[in-house]
Prior knowledge:
By secondary structure, the protein is α+β, with helices and mostly antiparallel strands. About 25% of the residues lie in helices and about 30% in strands.
Amino acid sequence: MRWSRFFLYTKKEAPKDAVTPSHIYLIRGGYIKQVAAGIYDFTPIGKMVLDNIREIIKKEMDNAGAQEVMLSFVTPYELWEETGRAKKYGDELLRIEDRKTQKFVLSPTNEESVVDLVRSYVKSYKQLPINLYQINLKFRDEARPRFGLLRGREFIMKDAYSFHSSRDDLDREFNLMQETYEKIFTKMGLDFRVVEADSGAIGGSGSREFMVLANTGEDDIVVCSECNYAANIEVAKRKHIKKENPIKTETIEEVYTPDKKTIEEVCEFLGVDPYFSVKAVVKKAIFDECEEIVVFFLRGTDTLEETKAKNAIGAVDLADASEEEVEQAGLVPGFIGPFGLPSNIKYVIDDDLRMEEELVCGANKKDYHIKGAGLLDANLLGNLTVYRDIAAVKEGDLCSKCGKPLKITKGIEVGHIFKLGAVYSEPMNATFLDENGKAKPFIMGCYGIGVSRLIAAAIEQNHDEKGIIWPKEIAPFLVDIIVSDIKKEEQLNFAEKLYKELKKAGAKPILDDRNERFGPKIVDFELVGFPVCVIVGKKLKNGKVEVRNRKTGEKFEVDKDLAFEKVLEVLNS
Length: 573
Ligand code: ATP
Ligand code: MG
């Protein structure tokens, strides 16, 4: 490719709303252009990176025996009514109507579509298993589209759906997909972790996420410092440690704690370690049909993990409760404790507090707390009370597998695999006949990869203050041949010859033959992020050119006849 003819225009400035490196560099590097919030055009070079990623995914999916399909992007609303998701999916689902007032949705995911496709052809267990995948557009009307390609509204996903006659066969495919994903992300040159993940309202026995490690990631992942345990904080477990409270109270007593509302204030006032205090977090839980005030009790030193909390009570969402709403529910803000609460409210107590003694908690009475309290059997606390794991694991907590300290790092979710079971096939009446001629719903799995998000994730992990540093596996071009001054025929001729040789060798060169000064050309090389460049400049007169390694910053002055070998050497290093 000759840059002088290439539709690639870099920019000095990024828009103000661009805060993450990938967003800034994708815009400044001329890879994408914003069309509307969360919607982007890809320029030729952007499309090249996308295609490199697609190709790696396609190859591995095909190798694993999955078959590529293309499901319609516009999907009948009717199908979404069959599973009940037409209502449940919420505002991320863009519903549209055609001229005949027939309703459709822009596909945010394609379980309904694929079940409809399969049920119309597959009738017998003999046709199973099947794994169908596509690499296609998705639309989700995200509340806060942000960070460029990381969280768009229109984006590209690889979604695969497998159909089985038994749970065992689903387990086999699930493991195969995990291996396949590991190969895919390794091939892309990314540093990633496979983590245990939330199965949400659907439940089911398995859900794993694939996280690209990057400081700017939106997800917190918990990893063990010693063993291979890794989990999204939404589901991460920790080991319970039994600590004795050095302060022993003779009797359970109510103590006067005027205006002491926060854990810190109360514990300081009473001279108690906050570890031995109980904190109440009040939330408004949103269910399918109603809203309700729910109280979550945790150790004073812990924080509520909202996904765990949601799952504990089967809520669709949790919102903050106002002081008014808390009072209306019969609670005393600042002094809420697990004993003697209104009997019509749901309470959840964190597992870590089960059977704990010598605790400080609210007395459900203004300006009073209780000292020396013990939490016993949930039954004693009223029939709406349950113990669940609702606390967020924190740095330094101990691994539930090996007991060593846990660490927290940031990750970007680039893939998610999921055992669905019959959650979609059952309501959609998608059945096959088993060996005994009995109709059974398909057992399903689904497997997603954020294809366009991967472009951004790769940059979040591989960049510096000058620009992108592409892993060579997905780089749009591998070698940038910079002609320092195109008016010098000698430079241009040599560069063109080298270009041809590199192209023939499959080293994906681009020839920067723009009528520009050297300065902007080297700045563009670093911004756009090609792995290697060759500078053909003044020194050519003495038979020398310079080869640079973008990642390490190393510069090599080499004999012009050795430039080809040096480029390949740097590329393979
Ligand atoms: P997230 O928690 O980031 O919203 P999700 O759980 O909604 O992701 P899935 O429904 O599992 O995502 O979709 C599969 C993959 O699609 C995700 O792993 C992610 O890589 C990608 N993806 C999801 N939402 C977006 C988006 N708004 N923009 C770009 N990629 C996305
Ligand atoms: Mg989402």
